[in-house]
C-alpha cells in the first residue's frame, strides 16, 4: 500500500501537508480547485519536490530514494515521449533505459503494445501520431517500467471526450490487471465516479476527505466540497455520474 502520512513541504510561503492511502489495484482520483496542490502532491511522491514526513510503499520508506529509484511512473498532459525516437525506441527506454533489447524484452514490448492498441505505430515517430495514440504509447512506456505506483497528472485532458473515456477505462483495467496503485488528477467528478475507487479532495495543500466518490456527494466534508461538486464539469461519463 502507498501510505502518505503528514507529508510536508514549504514552498514560497505555501504550506502543504498530505495524508492519503492507495492500495495496489486501486485508483484514487485527486480532486480540488485549481491551485489547491494536486500536482504538488504527485511531485512530492515522485521525488521532484523534497518533502518531509512519512511516505511508505508496502511498509518501507521511499522518501529518501532519488527520483529514478522510486517505485513510481508518472504521466503528464504533455512531453511524455522523446520526439526524435520512434515509439518502439521510446518503449525500449521504458524497459531498461537503453535502446538495445534482447528477444525477451522485444516480446514484452510487442505484448504491451498490442494490449494498448499501438502495435501498428511502433516504427513511427511521435509527431506522426494523434494525441490519443501518443498518450497510449506513454502509458505503455509507464507500464513497461514495471513500477507499481502510477501517477497521472491529467494525461488525457487534451483528448476528445471519446478518446479520453477510452484511455480512462484502459487505466482502470490496467490498475486491476497489474495491481497498480494509481493516483489520477482530474477536474471531472464524473471521471472519478466512473473509474476511481476513492476520491481524495484537496483544499489548500491538504487532503480534507478521502472516501468513495458517492460518499463525497452524500456526505461532503464541508461547504467547499459541496460547492465544487455542484459546479463540477459533467465530464465524459455523464451516464455514470454518481448522482
Ligand atoms: N514550481 C513551483 N514553484 C512555486 N510555486 C508553485 C510551483 N508549482 C506550483 N506552485 C504553486 O503551488 C500551488 C499549488 O500548485 P499545484 O500545481 O500543485 O496545484 P493544482 O491543484 O495541481 O492546480 P491545477 O488544477 O490548476 O493544475 C499554486 O499556488 C501554484 O501557483
From TrEMBL:
Keyword Acyltransferase among UniProt keywords: no
Keyword flag Nucleotide-binding: yes
Pfam family, one: ABC_tran
Record-level GO cellular component terms: membrane
Alphabetic keyword roster: ATP-binding, Cell inner membrane, Cell membrane, Membrane, Nucleotide-binding, Translocase, Transport
InterPro entries linked: AAA+_ATPase, ABC_SmlMolc_Importer, ABC_transporter-like_ATP-bd, ABC_transporter-like_CS, P-loop_NTPase, Thiamine_ABC_ThiQ
Domain ABC transporter: 2-229
Example of a GO MF term: ATPase-coupled transmembrane transporter activity
GO BP, sorted A to Z: thiamine transmembrane transport
Domain of life: Bacteria
NCBIfam families per UniProt: thiQ
Protein name: Thiamine transport system ATP-binding protein
Organism: Celerinatantimonas diazotrophica
Amino acid at each position: 500500500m502507498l501510505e502518505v502520512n503528514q507529508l510536508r513541504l514549504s514552498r514560497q510561503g505555501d504550506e502543504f501537508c498530505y495524508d492519503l492511502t492507495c492500495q495496489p489495484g486501486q485508483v484514487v482520483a485527486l480532486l480540488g480547485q485549481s491551485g489547491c496542490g494536486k500536482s504538488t502532491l504527485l511531485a512530492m511522491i515522485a521525488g521532484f519536490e523534497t518533502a518531509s514526513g512519512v511516505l511508505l510503499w508496502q511498509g518501507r520508506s521511499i522518501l529518501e530514494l532519488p527520483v529514478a529509484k522510486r517505485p513510481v511512473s508518472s504521466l503528464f498532459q504533455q512531453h511524455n515521449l522523446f520526439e526524435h525516437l520512434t515509439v518502439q525506441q521510446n518503449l525500449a527506454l521504458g524497459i531498461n533505459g537503453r535502446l538495445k533489447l534482447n528477444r525477451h524484452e522485444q516480446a514484452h514490448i510487442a505484448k504491451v503494445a498490442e494490449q494498448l492498441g499501438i502495435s501498428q505505430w511502433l516504427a513511427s515517430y511521435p509527431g506522426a501520431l494523434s494525441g490519443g495514440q501518443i498518450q497510449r504509447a506513454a502509458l505503455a512506456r509507464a507500464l513497461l517500467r514495471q513500477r507499481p505506483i502510477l501517477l497521472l497528472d491529467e494525461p488525457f485532458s487534451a483528448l476528445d471526450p471519446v478518446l479520453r473515456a477510452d484511455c480512462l477505462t484502459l487505466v482502470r483495467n490496467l490498475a486491476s490487471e497489474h495491481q497498480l496503485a494509481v493516483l489520477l488528477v482530474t477536474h471531472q467528478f464524473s471521471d472519478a465516479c466512473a473509474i476511481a475507487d476513492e476520491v481524495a479532495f484537496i483544499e489548500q495543500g491538504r487532503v480534507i476527505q478521502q472516501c468513495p466518490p458517492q460518499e463525497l456527494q452524500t456526505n461532503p466534508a464541508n461547504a467547499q466540497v459541496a460547492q465544487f461538486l455542484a459546479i463540477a464539469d459533467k465530464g465524459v461519463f455523464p451516464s455514470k455520474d454518481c448522482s
